[in-house]
Structure formats: C-alpha cells, structure tokens
Amino acid sequence: MVRGLLLLASLWAAFILLACQKKQAASAQPSNAEIEGEWLYDNNCGECHENPQPDLHKQPPSLHGLFRRGSLPSGAPATAAQIRTTIIEGRGTMPAFDQRLREEDIDNLLTYLRTLN
Amino acid sequence: MKSRFALTSVILLLTLSVSCNRTRKYPLQGEVVAKNAATSEITVNHGDIPGFMAAMAMPYRVKDPAVIQELEPGDKIAAEVVVGKDPSDYWLEDVRITDESGRGKVKPPTAPQMLMPGERVPDFTLVNQDGRKIRLSDFAGKALLVTFIYTRCPMPKFCPRLSSQFARIHNELKKNPEDYGKTHLLTISFDPKYDTPAVLRKYGLAYLDGDEGGFSQWDFASTNPTDLRRLAKAFGLEYEEEQNQITHSMSIVLIAPNGTVAKFWSTNWTWTELLENLQHAAQAIGQRGK
Asked: Strands B56-62 and B90-99: what pairing?
C-alpha cells in the first residue's frame, strides 16, 4: 500500500517537473511579435515609462500589468483600440507617435505589452 | 437614350476630376530679389497675401522656364500664387512685370546670422494656439523667454523637459502678480506641418494643467518654414527633419524689454536659473520707470 502511494507520488512529481520544464521552454522562446514589440518598447516607450523622470511635468506611469488590471492609468479600459489611439494621438504630455510607428509596429507593441506584468 | 447617358457620365467624371484636383489662387504683388534658373525659382519680396502668407521675402517656383529667363532681380511683378491640394505645393502662374525700372538695383538677401547678446531681435510674425497672429514686437516692454520644441518629440531630455521646465517657471511667476505682468513665455514649434494651432493648443493645455487662462502668459506658436529657418538661425537653433523625426539642438533666448537679446542657453541650464534671469530682466522695467 505504502509502496503504491510512493510510486503514485513519484509519478505525480515527475509529471509536475515535466510540465514546468515545458512551460519554461515555452516562455524562453518569445514570438517574433514579442521580440519586435520589446525592441520598439525599449526604443520608443521605455526611456520614459521605465525610468523616473524628475524633470518632467508629469511622471509617465508604469505600463506593467495594463491588461491584467483591465484599465489604463487614465482610467480608460485597457483595450487594444484604446491603447492604439493613445499611442497615435498621445495623451496629456505624452507625445503623439502619429506617422512614426506603423500599424504592424503598434500590433507588435500591443503583443509585448500583454506580456509585461 | 444611350448617348445622353454617356454624355451625363462624361460630365460627371469631368466634374469629379475638377473637384479632386482643385487648386486655390491668390494674387501676389512684389519685387524679385533673386532668381535661380536651375531650380526654376524666384525669391519675391511681397506684401500680405490674405489667406495665404504674411508679407515677406520667400522663394516661389515658376512653372514656365521661359518666364524665369525674362525676369531679373529688381523687377516689380504681379502674379497668381497657385496652391495645390497639398498646401505645401505652391507655385506662380501668370507672372507679369509691372515695372522694370529697378532692374539690377537690388542686392540679393544675405543669409541671416545668429544674434549676439545686446543685438536687436528682428520682428517675426507667428500664429499662436488660438490661430491668432502674434509678433515678437507685441511683447516689447516685457521680459520674454523663448524656446523651441516640436510636440511629437519623444526624447524626455529635450522638448518634454523644456516644456516641463517652462511650466515650473510659469507656476512660479503666477505666485507673484508683479512678475506675471512684466514677463511672457513663448514656445515655438519647428514642426509647423504637424503642429497646427489646434495641436499646439492641446499640447499647451497639458502643460498648463488645463488652465486656458495660462495662454495669456504663455503662447505656443509656429510659422511658415521660411520664417522658421530665419528665426532658428537668429536664435542659434539647428533642426533637421528625417522621416517624421526631427533632430534638433536646444535654444532658450531671453529677450529684454527693449527688444534686444539678453542671454542664450543651449544645454547647460536649470529652470531656477532661467527664472532668476527672467525676473531680473523684468525688474529692470520698474527701475527704469522710477
């Protein structure tokens, strides 16, 4: 009976271990959209949104967990359409990225923003 | 029946093509100050062209190369400025010489140079966030702090910093009504294609925390590309547009109440230093009056 339980526990542990490895392997290989999105984020957004900016009139908010929270720093719902509009038109002291980022760039940025937690 | 349908279609198509290719025309009168046959351009010193351009000297393309051959600097001309569907595309048509007695007597315009402290600032006309024309000379008698930005600038150490620090200066000035009346802030965009009065208004309100009354103390303005180049040169600003991104230097200029340059700053400045200099220049107004 005890031997049977031990065997069951070992099998369960092996299963968990395998599952974790699989998950790690999946997260270690981001999609092309994520890679592109991260690059665009670092070069267009990160300088303000990742670093404190004491010289600026308003502190740019963190963009981590936008989709998890479900709302943007402005209080608007965190939808792809809303974020796209904010990127293109700017908001408050955030500059507009109109004519500077292509549609596919914004798609890739959105994909990356979903992974930022 | 068939032929009537065909005729109607042709008329409809013609009407559509005319309306799609519509251009606007404005009468121009002025004096040729330079000509460049290679680029088919003449520089004309002209009076106000209502609805299109304030009085100034600027280059215009002439469509017919034969016309360029006939023109000489010093000629007084009348012509039509034709503005295409894209407002940045304009040229001269129907150019007529009205007086050629001044031919050869005009000197080509010299390239403007950066002003030195103490030198008088030439008058420039700009259009502000309300779409209203303002002149630098409107602020004579006040200490005027001028800087240059473009609203889409994504570099936090450049335009966002300049506007943020100007906002701090504005908030400090508000605390002292005497300083407020003797000073003025002016932010000039070097991206007039994108920074329309409406865009500048929205941008300005973000730095004024939504207080429209703040525009009476702080204007956000721009002007046509030709005058911007002259203004930038005079104030030591460098800028170059490449694929919707503008590479630029920084320039902050303090203009004294008498309309001369008091001081320049580029990279090495703090908002408190700018404020102190602005207040100092403003205090001189009261002292002179006593």
From this structure: parallel
A11 and A50: one domain? no
In three-state secondary structure terms, B104 is coil
pLDDT digits (tens, 9 = 90+) for B191-217: 999 999 999 999 999 999 999 999 999
Which residues from A are below 8 Å from B156, CB to CB?
Answer: 47-48, 53, 55-56
CB contact under 8 A, B164 and A47: no
- Closest-CA distance, B46 to chain A, in angstroms, reads 34
The distance from CA B19 to its chain's CA centroid, rounded to whole angstroms, is 30
Are residues A49 and A61 located together in one domain of the fold? yes
For residue A22, the enclosing domain spans 1-30
Whether residues A53 and A99 fall in one domain: yes
Question: What pTM value is reported for the model?
Answer: 0.66
Provide the pLDDT for residue B85: 67
The distance of Cα A41 from the centroid of its chain, to the nearest Å, equals: 10
* A50 and A25 inside one domain: no
Domain total in chain A: 2
- Give the model confidence (pLDDT) of B249-265 as tens digits: 999 999 999 999 999 99
A96 neighbourhood in chain B, CB within 8 Å? 151-152
Whether residues A26 and A43 share a domain: the answer is no
Place of tokens 């409809």: B12
